[in-house]
Model the fold of this input.
Amino acid sequence: MRVRTRLEWRQQSRLQDQSDRLRRTLADLRAAATSRADYEPHDVTDDEAAVQADAIEDRLAAIGKALDRINTGGYGICLACRSPIADERLDAVPATAVCRD
Ligand SMILES: [Zn+2]
Done:
């Protein structure tokens, strides 16, 4: 098992929190869509909810990959140019895989 840096520990718990929150939001969205579908015809709200759910799934995927990088190494290294990502950027967007450039 890799020894994690202090930054990685902190980011890991933040990513886990974000992931838990997003999963709850996603479950709520799906539950709301299902209950609407029981008594209403398809409406625009369903499309909005679907777009929102897709966006949440994308974020969850990004968070999952960031957690993988913390476990296997490479977290905080830009996937595009291989240089270290600034701590401020990781703090602002813990799941980011690329540097600002
Ligand atoms: Zn880069």
